[in-house]
Amino acid sequence: MPPSKIIIDTDPGQDDAVAILLALASPKELEVLGITAVAGNVPLALTERNARIVCELAGRSDMRVFAGCDRPLRHSLVTAEHVHGKTGLDGPDLPEPTMPLAPGHAVDFIIDTLRTEPAGTVTLCPLGPLTNIATAFEKAPDIASRVQEIVLMGGAYFEVGNITPAAEFNIYVDPEAAEIVIKSGCKITIMPLDVTHKALVTKPRNDAFRALGTPVGIAVAEMTDFFERFDKEKYDTAGAPLHDPCVTAYLLKPELFNGRHVNVEVETTSTLTRGMTVADWWSVTDRPPNAMFMGDLDADGFFTLLTDRLAQL
Ligand code: RIB
Ligand code: CA
User: Fold this and answer.
1) Nearest-CA residue for atom 10 of ligand 1
2) Which CATH number covers residue 282?
3) Which range of residues forms the domain containing residue 255?
4) Are the C-beta atoms of residues 52 and 95 closer than 8 Å to each other?
5) What are the tens digits of pLDDT across the range 89-100?
6) Res 233: pLDDT
7) Which of 21, 41, 242 is the pocket-test mutation for ligand 1 (most atoms within 8 Å of CB)?
8) pLDDT tens for residues 261-274?
9) Any residues with Cβ below 6 Å from ligand 1, and which?
10) Which residues contact 208 (CB under 8 A, 6 or more apart)?
11) How many structural domains are present in the chain?
């Protein structure tokens, strides 16, 4: 079976970096057509830089990395240096990128790729605010029907918010973009905090990354060592939650995940609950189901897959 074609839309971010590495370590299953950077964890100038750093760490300086939107559709940009550090990739000491940024805007790359590839053959993998994806859908309404699937990290229901009491960061930063994507009619699979908070990098799991002894293994161990401070302090968890790699792992081994096909809507008008994802988990409304909302994970299986694949780089 030929590899699945994907576009990774991302705001690296240590967890984004691990998601990208997992994808690049799996060429038999995934063909990364390009990586599109968006403002989120840190400003765009850093997210596009970090995406290139990660590609070079993986030995993929040939990868096309595009810069996309530098701010949300309506709101001013909210960033998360308190979680990811001032560069967004704090932890390992990695060299500045030498590979060039691909020419052109990320949104145009998404549009052109979806128009060029056969319909239904490209999966979009948003790992940050959905600004690039929503802008592409607004600019080229014809492309939504050509998307094979959108597998995104974002939202929360039982786990509630991580940037406000009600909202998860990716959705909070650009709720209008999230609403456009969720109402696009595309097949959507959502990795919310409900499931990503079960992908915790405990010390033995971090030790297994470091024990790979490779530049990738050591860098990932150092990234998650840095990245875990925020969540350990806030949630008293046993380690950093690997949010974004849940997207890549789902593409590789969907059986690791469990969820429900439910209706999901995004709050865009309330200041108090801006960016909240309202998942009708118990089907108490007549709103039609529009997304596969994940809730459970085989964490040991996830880390076995991740560590085995990182060893390939
Ligand atoms: O809330 C977690 C999400 O926000 C992750 O994608 C993380 O990288 C940040 O973008
Ligand atoms: Ca991210």
Assistant:
1) 128
2) 3.90.245.10
3) 4-310
4) no
5) 999 999 999 999
6) 81
7) 41
8) 999 999 999 999 99
9) 11, 13, 15-16, 40-41, 127-128, 153, 162, 168-170, 243-244
10) 303, 307
11) 1
